[in-house]
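Researcher: Next sequence.
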Amino acid sequence: MTARTTQLDDRVRSALRTVGAAAKRGLGDAGLAELVQIRASQLNHCAFCLDMHLGLARQQGVSEQKLDLLAAWEEAGEVFDARERAALALTEAVTVLTEGFVPDEVYEQAATHFAEAELAHLLALIATINTWNRLMVARRIPAGSTEW
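Model: Next structure:
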C-alpha cells in the first residue's frame, strides 16, 4: 500500500506531539500509555501506529505476553491488572463510542483506579491517539513509513 499523501502541516504535527507527550507525562506510566495507544490503534486498524507503539512498548519493558494478548485483554485473566483493565475498557469506550457515549460504569471504574488528574491525562492520551490513527488511516500511511 502506498500513502495517498504524506502532507501534514508541521504545526498540526507539533501540536499533536505536544498534547500526546503532556498526556503521557501526566499519566505517569509509560508502559500503560503504550498499551492504551496500541489498543486504540488495533480498534482503528492503524498499522503505522501499531508498528510504532509496539516498538515503544517493548522499549518501556511491556511484556511480550501482554502485547500478544492485548487484543483479547478481557479474556486474558490476570495478565492485566485491575488498573490496566480499567484503562483499556475506557480506551475502547472512547474509541468506539458504541452507544454514542462512554458508559457511566466504564468511566466510574476508571475513576477508582486513577486520580482525577491522571484520568484527565488518560482521556487526553486516548483522544490524541485516536486523532493520530484517523490521520494515518485516512492518508494510508504504511507501517514503518519515514514520511508522514
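Model: Residues 36 and 88 are 6 Å apart (CA to CA). The mean pLDDT is 96.
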